[in-house]
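Field reference: sequence -> structure
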Amino acid sequence: TVTQPAIAGFRINNPALITVDRCTVTAPTTANFVGVHIGDDATDATVRGTTISGTNASGSRGILCESSAQLLGNKISSFKHSTSGIGIDVEADSLDDVVINSYDGPDSTHHTVIKECRTGVYSGGYSRPTVRSARIKGGTYSFWVSSTAAGDFGVEFTSTEKGGCDVTNVATKFVRADPPRIGLRPWLPVDQG
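Structure field:
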């Protein structure tokens, strides 16, 4: 378990169970920076309650996830490069279980918050992330799904519904799908690129 250091990004690339708990990661102005990189040979990593602040550098991402992981209650902001800034980039295999959620259960106030990122959650490769209790604000796309990926993005957040996602403050489009292969509920408009 890594707990509460101020760090400039790191990679989890170990089959051992690793937990990153309440860290602060601040991006330099370097292109292709990744705050937390969960490599493809990591096993069931957890990133919980971590704050990741980005810059306007091209190719930068808050979290890059290439294997099974629990991404719980993280605060990711300012990965806003005009063509490539991503809050959470999920590039895992279709058999990997990637969950983005709050960390104290459905009544939690510890939601995953992604703000001022060009794309909130990108589902690439053959990934199949499950997203619950996310608050995505101030970007171009809440969710972007590549042609070989899919995703389960929950239901619209209401005051009576537990585990829903709030994407109401995204500037232009909620979802981009290339082409759409996603498990959406009817409330989410789709932009087919």
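Note: The radius of gyration is 15 Å.
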